[in-house]
Amino acid sequence: MRTTLRTTGVAVRAMLVFTVLLGIGYMLLITGIGQLALPAQANGSLVRSADGGVVGSSLIGQSFQDADGNALPEYFQSRPSAAGDGYDSAASSGSNWGPENEDLIAAIEERRTAAVELDGAGTVPADALTASASGLDPDISVANAERQVARVAEARGLPVADVQALVAANTRGRDLGFLGEPRVNVLELNRALDAR
């Protein structure tokens, strides 16, 4: 009986020590290293306006539509989102519809029609028609951005060449030079447009 109580006491003390050491101490250490080494990333890669207010995160897409869900023509449009009501970071997910799902096919056709109405006929890039797996993708393909240039330039009264230059300036290359595809962060591009 005494041996059992002693063993139980040692186990409880070890659990408490390791809970404090690994559950609290380790977390504080890693958080501290993150704050010192990469403070912007550790705090969510927040994008701030000129007055210091938070306008979003460079890691989470957002909608550039009016209250009725219509695309604002003076802004580049983000990739469609299936997260909650759209770009809801608390409900990150895709639709999980397979390629032959009737709902997915209908959504793609609806998005294709909307893209043609907004930007004219022509090839509509896949990322303008389908949501990402997380539903929060902040980037669009270069082809998707280039398709929207003429509309944005006209809506803002800017030369097409100036808007193309902004797209080029906000295009990120492949990670490590070979991973992924070149892409454009929509929030950063739209902020660059607003700064003109």
Salient structural properties:
single chain, 196 residues, mainly alpha, 2 domains, 3-stranded antiparallel β-sheet, two-stranded antiparallel ribbon, 6 helices, 47% helix, elongated
Structure report:
The chain is mainly α. It has 2 domains: 39 residues; 150 residues, no CATH class. It has 6 helices and 5 strands. The strands form 2 sheets. The chain has a 3-stranded antiparallel beta sheet. Strands 1-2 form a two-stranded antiparallel ribbon. A hairpin with a 5-residue loop joins strand 1 and strand 2. Helix 4 crosses helix 5. The longest helix has 36 residues. The radius of gyration is 23 Å and the shape is elongated.
Spatially, the strands of the biggest sheet line up as 3-5-4
How much of the sequence lies in strands comes to 5-15%
For the termini, the CA-CA separation is 79 Å
Poorly predicted ranges: none
- What does the overall shape look like? elongated
Note the total helix count: 6
Structural class: mainly alpha
Question: Helical content, roughly?
Answer: 40-55%
Quantity of strands, as a count: 5
CA-based gyration radius: 23 Å
| Biggest sheet details | 3 strands, antiparallel
- N to C succession of SSEs: HHEEHEHHEEH
Instruction: Determine the mean pLDDT.
Output: 90
